[in-house]
Design brief:
With 217 residues, the chain is mostly beta strands. 5% of the residues lie in helices and 41% in strands.
Length: 217
């Protein structure tokens, strides 16, 4: 299903691989900002070049170099990843479609995430580590275009992904605090954010979430 109205949070295929829409800026030629789920690398394109996919129970895919299977019949435990597929946040919560969050604690009606969001059990699919034998791999739109052993190789040799660019703004994922910082310098494989934060690309991908770029034109 080709998209011409792309929205933040949608799962889409771009260049045959699974991505998530992180922002849409219609005034730009390449208006759709994507994050490849496999390695969290960033990509720019336009709406005519992506195809939407709606994640469902028993879908499996690589997220940040590790395989996960989506389950609707299992409840999350502390430390688990969840994919919020049916968002209905209260006024004090801040999450949207297909947010991936980490569970901090579990309550009778839902979970509290490390971002201090209260998510009801009916709003998410649990991301269970590994590929369920009965799962539907969704990493690629056309599996015939990739090697037959891609499922076994994908999570073994993670690539670092693409470096960010100066002006990119990131938000810290874990913890209750809300910290945003801009990429101010890059030296070889070291990334420097504002507030004297220095980290590697792997650490940036693991602990920070891309928001937008101040220097896009």
């Amino acid at each position: 299903m080709k998209l011409y109205q792309v929205r933040k949070g949608q799962f889409v295929y771009f260049n045959n691989e699974l991505h998530k829409v992180y922002s849409v800026k219609p005034i730009y030629k390449q208006s759709v900002h994507l994050i490849k789920l496999k390695d969290l690398s960033q990509h720019l394109t336009n709406a005519s070049k992506v195809e939407r996919y709606i994640p469902k129970h028993l879908d499996s895919f690589i997220f940040n170099h590790k395989a996960y299977t989506l389950h609707k019949e299992k409840q999350a435990e502390e430390g688990d990843f969840i994919l919020i597929t049916n968002p209905s946040p209260d006024y004090m919560d801040h999450y949207s479609l297909n947010e991936i969050e980490i569970v901090s604690s579990v309550e009778s009606k839902g979970v509290i995430t490390t971002r201090a969001n209260g998510v009801k059990h009916i709003e998410y699919l649990l991301m269970v580590p590994g590929r369920d034998p009965n799962s539907n791999p969704i990493d690629y739109l056309d599996k015939s275009m990739v090697d037959n052993d891609w499922m076994s190789n994908d999570s073994d040799q993670p690539a670092e992904g693409e470096m960010p660019t100066i002006g990119d703004v990131y938000k810290k994922r874990d913890g209750g605090s809300s910290i945003e910082a801009m990429v101010v310098a890059i030296n070889d494989k070291k990334i420097f954010l504002g507030n004297n934060i220095e980290l590697s690309l792997n650490k940036l991908n693991e602990g920070w979430e891309y928001q937008y770029s101040l220097l896009e034109d």
